[in-house]
Protein 1
Amino acid sequence: MADEIPSRLEAVETPALIVDLDRLEANLDRAADYAARHGIALRPHVKTHKSSFVASAQLRRGARGLTCATPREAEVMAEECDDVLVAYPPIASPRARRLTALPPSVRLTVALDSEQAATELARAARDARREVGVYVELDLGMHRVGVPHVDAAVALARYVSEIDGLHFDGIAFYPGHIREAMADQDAKLEALEHTLARAMERFYDAGLPPRVVSGGSTPTMWRTHEVPSVTEMRPGTYAFNDRTTVRTGACTTNDCALTVLATVVSTSVAGQAVIDAGSKALGREPMSGPGEGFGQLLEHPDVIVDRMSEEHGVLDLAKSAWRPSVGDVVQVVPNHVCVAVHLHEYVYGLRGGHLERGWPIEARGRARHTA
Ligand SMILES: Cc1ncc(COP(=O)(O)O)c(C=O)c1O
C-alpha cells in the first residue's frame, strides 16, 4: 500500500486523515522520556490511533505494554505486543471469550469492578486453559466505572485471588474527572494521591499488595509523578493530541499531529464556506464552551467548523480575512481526535510536505473479522 499512495497532499482524495510524522514522533518521544525519567511504566491506550503502526512505534520507545478498550483492539494489538491490558469490564459473554482466545503467549490483564465480571472472566480463562491478571478498578472521582469504597475493592481483590483462572495483579483508576488546565489540577491530584495511599495501606493490611497501580490520562500525564502511588500510566490522546488537549495545556497547537484533510465544495452562501468533512469525518464532539465549533483550521486558526451535516462542514469566516475558493484544500484539527480516527479506515503520514507513507486503522470497528 505504501508505494501506491500519492506523494502530494493535494492528490489525496478527501476527507482523509493526515498525520504529521515529525509531530507524532516528537509526541511519542516526549512521553517515553517523561515516563523513563520518573520511573513510571508507560502503557499507552491504543483507542486513539487503533493502528499497529503507531503501537509498534510506542513499543520501540519502551512502552511496557498496551492498553485496549475493545476486543477488536486487543486482537489487533496482540499481534504487536505480548502484554495487553483491557481496561474495560469483560461483561457480555462473547467479550470475555474473545479476550481469553488471544494467543497464549500474550500476557492478558483485565480491569474490572464486579464479582460478576470476575466470575465470567475466570470461567472463560479456565475454558481457555490460561490465567488472566486482574486490576481491581477504583472510582477515584470520575463516577463512571470502579468500586467506590476501598473495603469493597479489597473484598473483590480477595475474590479474584481465590478463584481459579485469575490472579490479582493491581489496582486501576482513570482520572477522567480531571479536565481542568494543568496548572489548576493541584487540589484534585493531591486528593488522588491521598485516597490512593490510604487504599494501598488497606490492600497491604489485607495481605493483597497491588503489584501495579495503573492510572493516568493525557490531561494529567505530565504531572503523574506528583501522584507517587502510580506505577503505570495509560495516556492515549497524547500520540496525536487535539483541540481539547491544547485547552488543558497538556500540549500546544504545534503538537497536534493529526488533521482531517478536506476540500472546499461550496462558497455560495456569504460569510461561510462548506467543506466535505462533516460529522462522519470529524465526529460531533463539542468543546467545553458553547460556540466553539467542531474543529479549527490548521492554517487559519480564526476559522472554525461551526455547523455540520453528515458530509458537510460549514466554516464560519466571520472572524477571518481569508476567502477560500471552491476546490481549496484545508486541514482541520478535530476537537476529539480519538473519535475522528475511528471514523476513517486509513491514515496518510506527511513529512516535509511529502506523503511518506500510509497505514490502515486496523483496530477500528467491533467485528472479529473485517473484510
Ligand atoms: C480507562 C482509560 N484509560 C486511559 C485512557 C486514556 O486517556 P486520554 O484519552 O486522556 O489519554 C482512557 C480514555 O478514555 C480510558 O478510558
Note: Residues 170 and 210 are 4 Å apart (CA to CA).
Protein 2
Amino acid sequence: MRPQDILMPVAAGLCCKPGGFHIDPVRPVERAVITHGHSDHARPGHGAVLATQETLDMMRLRYGDNFAGSTQAIAYGEEIRLGDVKVKFHPAGHVLGSAQIAVSCKDTCIVASGDYKDAPDPTCAPFEVVPCDVFITEATFGLPVFRHGDAADEVKKLLASVALFPERAHLVGAYSLGKAQRLIALLRAAGYDAPIYLHGAMEKITHYYQSRGISLGELRAVKGVKKADLAGTITLAPPSATSDVWTRRFPDPVTAFASGWMRVRARARQRGVELPLVISDHADWDGLTATIDATGAGEIWVTHGQEDALVHWCKVKGLAARPLDLVGYGDEDEGETPAAEDSEA
Ligand SMILES: [Zn+2]
Ligand SMILES: [Zn+2]
C-alpha cells in the first residue's frame, strides 16, 4: 500500500482515510487521534478523541468536561484497530503524556511523532525510537544552528544568578504546559530546595503533574506575597507575563526565559530577556537528524517548522523526503503565539 493512501495532509490535519480519523486535527472532526496536550495539537469540539489519559486530562483541564463527544484512553505500547488500520502509541518525550502514533496498514508502518525530543526530561516518559517505513517529523528547530546543549548547565546559570543577586527576584518565563514543570524538576535535581513561586496561570497544570506522581518540591502561589519577601526567590510565569505590569510586584526582577529560541541572541534582546536559558522541549538539529537515522525509515515527511533544511539533509542522505505543508500548528510551547492562559493574571 502506498503511504499516501494511509495518511494524507488535508485542511483539517493529517487524515487517515482507511482508519476513519485525523491526527491532531486543527478543525472539528468526527474522530481525532491526538499526540499531546499543547493547544495547537489538542483542540476542543471533536466527536471522539483517542489519546493517552494524561492528554485527555489536560484537555479536560483546559476546555472543561464537554471538550469532546466521547473519549478513549490508550496506554503506551497498546494497539487498537481503527477501521482497516492499527494504531499504537509510543512515548515522544515532549511533555507528560505525549505520544508518537504508529499507524500500520498491511505491511506499511507510518509514525506520526507529533512534537518530540530525545533529551532527558524527568517529567515524562523518555522518547522511544519506533522503526517504520515513513517517519513524520517536526522541524521546529530544523536548522544546524540550533544545538540546545545540556539543560542542566542552563539551570546552573540561573542558580548562579540567584546566588549573585540575593536582593533581586528572578522571574523565569516558561510555557505553562511542560516547560515550567521540567524547569522545576531540573532545579530540584540541581539541589535547589527553596520554595518555588508560580504565576496563577501555571497552578492548575503544575498541580496536575504532581497528582501524576511527578515530584516538584514545595510550590507556592506568588499572588498575595509581599514584594520584599520575593527577594532572592524564583518565580515561574508564562512568557507574556514577564514583560507586563505584573512584574512590578517583584523587587528589581532579573528576567529569564527558558526556550530553544534563546540560542538566537537577537530574540532574547528583542524580548528584553536579561538571562536567556536555552532549554527546549523539541529535538535540536542533532536530535532530529539522529532520530530520522535511527527509525530506519526510507521516507521522511517534514512538518511545522523549518522544513527546508531538514528535507535537504534527508535527500543528501538518499532518503525520500518532502514537506507536508500542514497549517495551524503555531506551537504553543515555543512559538510566537502565547498560550491562551498566558493572558491570565
Ligand atoms: Zn507541543
Ligand atoms: Zn507542535
Note: The first strand starts at residue 8 and ends at 10.
